[in-house]
Design brief:
This protein is 34% helix and 28% strand. With 405 residues, it is of the alpha/beta class. The structure holds flavin mononucleotide. This is FprA family A-type flavoprotein.
Length: 405
């Protein structure tokens, strides 16, 4: 069952985290399998003559959220609600918050956010909306709030807020990750280590399609000098970064650039009756002989790994090896879909080796090769043959693997 926690995270300014731990979700955005769950983080800041709420939570948890907020604030006293990004996992509870607030609060966001909110929730929600522009500063409760747009991270509406005097970055989706971390911030290294692979999975599945904007927007924030100076980075999902705030954006940058982990090789294949698998055993043995660390995902009559997990492995792989059978004159459907998502979400300059098996006419290998040739990936070789692999096929596979590195 989902739960909610409130933690005071700063005394000056008085700042609270209100975090829904959603362990009920199965498929984020109705697509990405996340048995690890996700959190929705909202923040409340109490200032002289102003109370500011940063984002809300998913609609399903609106009542729980209001109840929790009431423990720390009279809802009618909220003066400003900052909307960084209108995706309903952060805005689903906004209508209820505004109702309870008597529509007293000013809602702040980009012009894009205003239009999206109106489209999602009706005109009532934007009747007290104030559009803020890139770089604009507002004095609220004696503090300077600077709004910086980070378009396509990962919607056109997205912005972050920088509280100048306190060097706080409220970053919503940017800096977020999947899972329900055991802590609330990065103070425990074990918790961080456990969490970072879920950040990678989140970035690729959610922002991956726009990954060039990760690099672009982080460059923009760096140029403004706010990342180096940040005292805290407060995302809309997962851990807060206060011990080493820069670390999360450095991690994002590494994902954006596809920096590999030494010796990690991603191996993905389907095998209906074992012939592709025989080839992939040669692949895995040869990789191990070369001191590589194969990470293997296979689609068989017993296994159906989550595409989201496979996507999360791509940025940190040194090379990728795809094994596929020909299926109705095409690529096996599981590999076809996996490849489609990889090319859409995790398109990197990495070497790819293709291994294929067919019955009466090889098609899968050729089709994969065509798709890879049109992508950023570097096609190294395609080794495709009929039925069970011969000794000659095995030798070709071993040679091709050596050529990968
Ligand atoms: C549903 C199905 C469709 C297939 N379609 C083709 C095809 O269009 N062309 C072909 O050459 N072989 C086709 N085959 C044969 C497989 O590609 C071949 O047996 C291959 O070795 C399967 O590898 P696996 O044993 O790892 O699944 C098909 C097999 C199945 C079960």
């Amino acid at each position: 069952m989902a739960s909610i926690i409130t933690k005071k995270i700063l005394d000056e300014p008085e700042l609270y985290l209100i975090r829904v731990n959603d362990d009920e979700i199965k498929y984020f955005e109705a697509t990405w399998y996340i048995p690890e769950g996700i959190t929705y983080n909202s923040y409340l800041m109490k200032l002289d003559n102003a109370i500011v709420l940063f984002d809300t939570v998913k609609k399903e948890y609106a009542e729980m959220f209001l109840e929790e907020l009431r423990k720390i604030v009279d809802l009618e006293e909220i003066t400003h609600i900052i909307i960084h990004h209108t995706e309903p996992d952060h805005t689903g509870a906004l209508s209820k918050v505004l109702e309870a607030n008597g529509y007293r609060a000013k809602v702040l966001g980009t012009a894009f956010a205003r239009n999206l909110l109106e489209g999602f929730y009706g005109s009532e929600i934007v009747k007290n909306f104030q559009v803020v522009k890139d770089g604009e500063e507002l004095k609220i409760g004696g503090k300077t709030f600077r709004f910086i747009t980070v378009p396509w991270l990962h919607w056109p509406d997205t912005m972050i807020t920088y509280v100048v005097e306190d060097k706080l970055i409220f970053s919503c989706d940017a800096g977020g990750g999947y899972s329900i971390p055991r802590g609330i911030d990065d103070s425990n290294e074990d918790v961080v280590k456990e969490y970072l692979p879920y950040v990678t999975k989140y970035v690729v599945t959610v922002i991956g399609h726009y990954h060039k904007y990760i690099v672009q927007n982080i460059k923009k924030l760096k140029k403004l000098g706010i990342i180096d100076n940040a005292k805290m980075i407060l995302p809309g999902h997962g851990l807060i970064w206060r011990k080493n705030p820069k670390r999360i954006f450095e991690h994002y940058e590494r994902i954006g650039a596809g920096v590999p982990e030494k010796d990690k090789v991603l191996v993905i294949y389907d095998s209906m009756y074992g012939f592709v698998e025989e080839r992939m055993k040669v692949v895995i043995d040869e990789l191990k002989r070369l001191g590589k660390k194969p990470i293997v995902y296979r689609f068989t009559d017993r296994e159906n790994p989550a595409i989201a997990d496979i996507l999360g492995e791509v940025p940190t792989a040194e090379a990728i090896i795809i094994g596929a059978s020909t299926f109705e004159a095409d690529i096996h459907p599981r590999i076809r879909y996996t490849l489609f998502e990889i090319l859409d979400k995790a398109n990197y300059e990495k070497p790819v080796l293709i291994i294929g098996a067919f019955g009466w006419g090889g098609v899968a290998g050729r089709k994969i090769e065509t798709l890879i040739a049109r992508s950023k990936f570097d096609h190294v070789a395609t080794i495709e043959s009929r039925g069970r692999p011969t000794e000659e096929d095995r030798e070709k596979i071993r040679e091709a693997i050596k050529a990968l590195f």
